[in-house]
TrEMBL record:
Annotated EC: 3.1.3.25
Organism: Comamonas avium
Reactions catalysed: a myo-inositol phosphate + H2O = myo-inositol + phosphate
Classification via CDD domains: IMPase
Keyword Nucleotidyltransferase: no
UniProt-listed SUPFAM superfamilies: Carbohydrate phosphatase
Key words, A-Z: Hydrolase, Magnesium, Metal-binding
Family per similarity comment: Belongs to the inositol monophosphatase superfamily.
Cofactor(s), by name: Mg(2+)
Record's protein name: Inositol-1-monophosphatase
Lineage: Bacteria, Pseudomonadati, Pseudomonadota, Betaproteobacteria, Burkholderiales
InterPro entries the record matches: IMPase (IPR033942), Inositol_monoP_metal-BS (IPR020583), Inositol_monophosphatase-like (IPR000760), Inositol_monophosphatase_CS (IPR020550), Inositol_monophosphatase_SuhB (IPR022337)
Length: 287
């Protein structure tokens, strides 16, 4: 099954690489504010689905662009697909994007592939068998102090996202770490934590196809992944936190209060902080 997923990811990657040679001619549509889809996303998803269902016609499919339109809706096996994670990067020619494919069996992720077509980097994992980058075993980093850690993130950009709360999170993490990066492709961000290139990652507003494959890479590389309060059942909760075990514990301590599952007092404290920020902004604009 992993080999079929690799074949599907490489087929999608070949399409993406060809389109990247003339990205100006790619047709782009807007799903909502700052949320783009291209003909390449759709073609890549078709290539993935055809490869997977060609091998496993009875399996289910959950794709970012087509949802559950294809495959067997009643199967215990469900392929979770993001055919082009980092579409905004792609349409600008910024070479940070990937194909993400995960296989879920009865709700548990069993196989994962994240493929970066610009670098020909292939991240793979199978439950209980470790995580790999181009067939070399990978492990999360060994850094123990947050002040030495490099953390990646993604900005919330959709209508309804709580941008002010995010900026407070961003400020807290920035002041406590060696640096924060915002590459723009969550599946690749998670793969980089698994490989030890970064020490942690956090983002809200993500969908299951953004995090399914990356989450298995993280755990198979010895890391931890969950929601902002540290609970592991996070795949469909739209908030994701990952890191090596020591960094993860410290990040939970900082970000837990911003979780939608935080306690009442934490939520009141965050709301009070946001209100104070608004008041300061109003005062400074009046000056």
């Amino acid at each position: 099954m992993l080999n079929v997923a690799i074949k599907a990811a490489r087929a999608a990657g070949a399409l993406i690489n060809r389109a990247a040679l003339d990205v100006e001619s790619v047709r782009v549509a807007q799903k909502q504010v700052n949320d783009f889809v291209t003909e390449v996303d759709k073609a890549a998803e078709r290539a993935v689905i055809e490869t997977l269902l060609g091998a496993y016609p009875d399996h289910g499919i959950l794709g970012e662009e087509t949802g559950t339109e294809f495959g067997n809706k009643n199967s215990d096996f469900v392929w979770i697909i993001d055919p082009l994670d980092g579409t905004t990067n792609f349409i600008h020619g910024f070479p940070v994007y990937c194909v993400s494919i995960a296989l879920s069996f009865k709700g548990k992720i069993e196989h994962a592939v994240v493929y970066d077509p610009t670098r020909n980097d292939l991240f793979t994992a199978t439950r209980g068998r470790g995580a790999f980058l181009n067939e070399r075993r990978i492990r999360v980093s060994k850094r123990t102090q947050l002040k030495d850690c490099l953390v990646s993130t993604g900005f919330p950009f959709r209508p309804g996202d709580n941008f002010r709360a995010y900026m407070r999170m961003f400020a807290e993490i920035t002041q406590r770490t060696a640096g924060v990066r915002r590459p723009g492709a969550a599946a690749l961000d998670l793969a980089y934590v698994a490989a030890g290139f970064t020490d942690g990652f956090f983002e809200s507003g993500l969908s299951i196809w953004d995090v399914a494959a990356g989450s298995l890479l993280i755990t198979e590389a010895g890391g931890l992944v969950g929601n902002f309060t540290g609970e592991a059942d996070f795949l469909e909760q739209a908030e994701c936190l990952a890191g090596n075990p020591r960094a993860y514990g410290q990040l939970v301590g900082i970000l837990g209060k911003y979780s939608k599952f935080a306690g009442v007092q934490d939520k009141m404290d965050v709301d009070a902080g946001i209100a104070a920020d608004k008041k300061d902004e109003a005062a400074s604009s009046n000056d």
